[in-house]
Specification:
heterodimer, A: mainly alpha, MetI-like fold, 2 domains, two-stranded antiparallel sheet, 12 helices, 2 strands, B: alpha/beta, Rossmann fold, six-stranded mixed β-sheet, four-stranded antiparallel β-sheet
Chain lengths: 303, 253
């Protein structure tokens, strides 16, 4: 207090402080705008689709079969076909992907072979879906003699989703602290006992989320199934839950949307939009389930 | 000391890749003694413990040579490494409550060893928590999460877990660095009681802790044993090496 020069200047609003405040405000606004920019397209797309689809949307549209050269009726065969394809492909890729990821993350030593496997997984994730389609055509349709069928298409989708499931599972496993594993090993637990008691229970929510997110990818892809097992039209009974055999071809939502939009003359526009709404709605529903599951499991997270 | 040593370490060398961190050390641990191991950071204390219970196996680039014998049997040649790890209790520097209930934390090792009878496991849980001076605080909430305990309680839980597989040797690696002095003193009392049942290796960078507890003290420096002798000698002017005298008196370290 004795020194008049010391105190007052200390908290004064200098040019430096003003600059910092300005930068802080600008940064905050910029980041906020980017976050909003993420949400706006989704809201716009969904509301536009629903608005355009409204005249055709009804429970009947979902459960009825296409009629009058696809210009009327519903999309039931395509809806069930997509359920088949997604269900079978995930039933194949989820167990293989999760177990492979457990091996790579928990057992594999850091040697050239396992590095090669990891590299292959990463690169496989980057392969375009049309290439997967050609691979599926060659491998499953011709080489494995599965023909153009649900099985071929589902296996092609499985190959496509596998690397992403492996990557997301590895991430979930890696998020469990190493200290937990060491504590288990120190008391004489084997690797498997450690994985079962501590690692899996604490990463299962991340693993499931990763798997479920692949539902949307498998449901949305058109190219792989177009080459391997999806057809324009298949006669099916209205509301039939099990209309297909696995060695038959099937309709699928993504394929149906493409068909309505480009291949069939005189289709009401609202029907195309309604098909898109059903596809998008199913995917969003599954994603919402994944989020709910994740929240529920995180509530039970234990550290 | 008519008894044979509990642990004999002979010409133990340990390298991580090209860098040798333990340089051919040899020493014995006597049955039912507390051996204090002191030394500054990077002197090889933790690596030594990891060789002892073979968790060094998890470091892919570690190269071990020499021998470590537990009751005359080489640990590096043992067939059942999981059984070996159960014979040696290990307490890490930072408390690790497993994300399981308090009960399951302690019951984990016996279950891994194949024990199934609920009554037997109940008895082990109560005995170990009592030995680790934690029973009175948690006996009414054995179902709550081990990770929800305070740091000091978690460290005692860690000790209870290390005792749950009835080890013959208990190794503590700087167990007090994350807990308060009062809890530290309680655990030190526990260790004094445990001495009658098992051999204890106490790695610590608190020289005074070794002085309070250890029967003998070993001073490690840069992967070499500077000196190993009865604790009163190490902490007196009678210590053979000037380095030891300097270290315990806080001149360096």
């Amino acid at each position: 207090m004795a020194d008049p020069n010391a105190s007052p200047a200390r908290f004064a609003r200098t040019a430096h402080v003003a600059r910092k405040e300005w930068a802080e405000k600008t940064a905050r606004a910029a980041f906020f705008l980017m976050a909003i920019a993420m949400v706006v397209p989704l809201v716009v797309i969904v509301s536009y689709l629903v608005w355009r689809a409204w005249p055709s949307l009804s429970w009947d549209f979902l459960t009825d079969v296409p009629r009058r050269g696809m210009t009327a009726g519903g999309i039931w065969p395509a809806f069930v076909g997509t359920l088949y394809l997604v269900g079978i492909s995930l039933a194949v890729s989820a167990p293989i992907g999760v177990l492979a990821a457990v091996y790579l993350n928990e057992y594999a030593k850091d040697n050239w072979f396992n590095r090669l496997v990891s590299l292959a997984v990463i690169n496989l994730a980057g392969v375009p879906s049309i290439v997967h389609a050609l691979f599926g055509l060659g491998a499953f349709v011709y080489a494995a003699h599965l023909g153009l069928s649900i099985m071929s298409a589902a296996l092609t989708l499985a190959i496509m989703t596998l690397p992403v499931i492996i990557a997301s599972t590895r991430e979930a496993l890696a998020s469990v602290p190493v200290a937990f594993r060491e504590a288990c090993w120190n008391v004489g637990a084997t690797r498997w006992q450690t994985i079962r008691a501590v690692v899996l229970p604490n990463s299962i929510s991340g693993i499931l989320t990763g798997v479920i997110l692949q539902v949307s990818r498998a449901a949305g892809e058109t190219a792989p199934i177009m080459f391997t097992g999806a057809v324009f039209y298949k006669a099916v009974a209205r509301g039939d839950l099990f209309p297909y055999r696995l060695d038959e071809q099937c309709m699928a939502l993504s394929m149906h949307l493409y068909t309505l939009a480009t291949q069939v003359p005189n289709v009401k526009e609202s029907m195309q939009y309604a098909t898109a709404v059903v596809l998008l709605g199913s995917v969003l529903l599954v994603n919402a389930a994944a989020i709910a599951l994740r929240i529920w499991m995180r509530g039970r997270k234990k550290w | 000391m008519g008894q044979p040593p509990k642990i004999e370490v002979e010409n133990l060398r340990l390298a991580y890749g090209a860098q040798e961190v333990v340089h051919s050390i040899s020493f014995d641990v006597r049955p039912n003694e507390i051996l204090g191991v002191i030394g500054p950071a990077q002197s090889g204390k933790t690596s030594l413990l990891r060789c002892l219970n073979r968790t060094i196996d998890f470091s892919p680039n570690a190269i071990v040579s020499g021998s470590i014998r537990l009751d005359g049997r080489d640990v590096r040649a043992t067939k059942d490494v999981f059984d070996l790890r159960r014979r040696i209790g290990m307490v890490a520097p930072l408390p690790v409550g497993l994300p399981l209930s308090i009960y399951d934390n302690v019951a984990f090792a016996p279950r891994c060893a194949g024990l199934r009878r609920r009554g037997d496991i109940d008895a082990i849980v109560e005995r170990c928590l009592t030995q680790a001076a934690l029973w009175d605080e948690v006996k009414d909430r054995l179902d709550s999460l081990g990770t929800a305990l305070s740091g000091g309680q978690q460290q005692r839980l860690t000790i209870a877990r290390a005792l749950s597989h009835q080890p013959e040797v208990l190794c503590l690696d700087e167990f007090s660095i994350a807990i308060d002095p009062v809890t530290t003193m309680r655990i030190e009392d526990v260790l004094k009681d445990l001495r009658s049942e098992m051999t204890i290796i106490l790695v610590t960078n608190l020289t005074q802790q070794a002085r309070r507890l250890a029967d003998r003290t070993m001073f490690l420096l840069d992967g070499n044993i500077v000196e190993i002798d009865d604790t009163p000698i190490i902490f007196s002017s009678g210590a053979a090496s000037q380095k030891t005298r300097d270290y315990v008196n806080g001149v360096f370290g």
